[in-house]
Amino acid sequence: MINLKRFLSTLSLLVFLGIWQGVAVYLNSNTLPTPEAVAKVFWLGCVSGQLPFHLGVTLLRLVVSFSVAMLLGCAIGIVLGRNKKLDAFFDNWLVIFLNIPALVTIILCYVWFGLVESAAILAVVINKLPNVIVTIREGTRALDQDLLDMARCYHFGKRKTLIHVIWPQLHPFVMGATRSGLALIWKIILVVELLGRSNGMGYQLHLFFQLFDVASILAYTVAFVAVIQLIELLILKPLDKKALRWRR
Amino acid sequence: MTDIQININNKTYPTATQPSIANLKLSLNSNEFICLVGPSGCGKTTLLNIIAGLDNDYDGEILVGQQHTHPKIGYIFQNPRLLPWRTVRENIELVLGEHQSPDVIDALLEVMQLTQAQQVYPERLSLGMSRRVSIIRAFAIDPEVLLMDEPFVSLDAPTARQVRELLVKLWQQRPHTVLFVTHDLREAIALADRLIFLSASPMQAVSEIIVPIARSDRGNELAIESFRQQLLQNHPEIKQLL
């Protein structure tokens, strides 16, 4: 069964590449290079060190802004989920921040704080934070009251209750926020870099756009998608497996 | 010697028009096994939650000796309430205080015949085994009062009997004050030193009866049944509470 799954997943990738190759050859246009041409640009970018450098810069921004957004979002989400009065007070704020377009936040951060690194990170965090808060708040609202009562009755205290009773129940919500967060944040980071940074993937893509260099655009995209897939495979999936080992 | 005194003058839920519990006074003697018998929905779980400190919205007092304080509680809930993401042993270890030795866990696991299952996650246990783990968890903290909320409900008869016998064995080895809630009179007679019959809306203690059957005869179903018949004959007021 596992072998069949692997075979199908490899086959689907090959079919995708085949269709791409076929359409590119048929159109024979600079705007859609063949996979081979993209691979060549990818390799040259790697050899020159340009691609790893800009990819690294973007990844660093992703790690910092993602960590800040997740830590703050989880803390605020748990507090709002457990405290009805605070939740009622801040609910409108959440709705407002959820609905501000990412572009507006980015522009305002650059206008107010200048074209600096901290403004870029802040813009990404502000965009992601409300999503994390809402997801974790829903998770906290769904906590099993029977288990919380048990913890209270046996005097677990706040720390023990958080680690052993609350956090394992929030795990699926945290993983949901993590996965949707990674996908959302890297897209926002590209816009942030495009508008106000002089390095990173977004900056490079902007350059390639001006040069109409589609092969480079695709090479950078493939590199980034591959990195996000590696994060899923090497970090998120093992985390899931460890956290859910108790399930039948 | 009266160890713990529970006086609940009034407990009314915010949306209710009349109190759930009114003028209820219970005296718990040290190491006594007390069964609270009353109809379903009469507020027995509410009473246990008040004693456990989970419900503080009531008018009354709980005295341990002369002190106004909540006693140290081991609570065996109707549903075992084990943490599914922790093993049997971890579930028990979590309730122990920092200064308590985990050696007590090995002894308790052995009495309850769960030594082999200590590294298993609760989802892989049968309901009877889960109940036994929750009994161990309650005994492990060496509580001042053990609260048991119909812990054998929804078990099949042989399993319920087995768990009941193990509970009594454990209690005889490690005597504690027990408040056991049930609506099954036979079960109550088989377990209790003293029976307290409770009425519904509002809950009040209707009568208290000492069970004179020797501990060695509690497994004798004929003796239990004969006492039950005698009880119902001599106290007709309790018939409507069953």
Automatic annotation (TrEMBL), chain A:
Any coiled-coil regions, as ranges: none
Domain of life per record: Bacteria
Entry's localization field: Cell membrane
Chief localization: membrane
Keywords: Cell membrane, Membrane, Transmembrane, Transmembrane helix, Transport
InterPro entries reported for this sequence: MetI-like (IPR000515), MetI-like_sf (IPR035906)
Domain ABC transmembrane type-1: 55-235
CDD domains assigned: TM_PBP2
Mode of membrane association: Multi-pass membrane protein
One Pfam entry name: BPD_transp_1
GO cellular component, one term: plasma membrane
Transmembrane segments: 59-81, 93-113, 207-231
Gene Ontology biological-process entries: transmembrane transport
Alphabetical list of PANTHER family matching this protein: ALIPHATIC SULFONATES TRANSPORT PERMEASE PROTEIN SSUC-RELATED, ALKANE SULFONATE ABC TRANSPORTER-RELATED, MEMBRANE SUBUNIT
Protein family (similarity comment): Belongs to the binding-protein-dependent transport system permease family.
UniProt-recorded name of the protein: ABC-type transporter, integral membrane subunit
Upper classification of the organism: Bacteria, Pseudomonadati, Pseudomonadota, Gammaproteobacteria, Methylococcales
From TrEMBL, chain B:
Magnesium as UniProt keyword: no
Highest taxon listed in the record's lineage: Bacteria
Entry GO MF terms: ATP binding; ATP hydrolysis activity
Record's keyword annotation contains Lyase: no
This protein's UniProt keywords: ATP-binding, Nucleotide-binding, Transport
Chain ranges of the ABC transporter domain: 6-225
Pfam families: ABC_tran
The family this protein is said to belong to: Belongs to the ABC transporter superfamily.
Protein known as: Taurine-transporting ATPase
Organism per entry: Methylobacter tundripaludum (strain ATCC BAA-1195 / DSM 17260 / SV96)
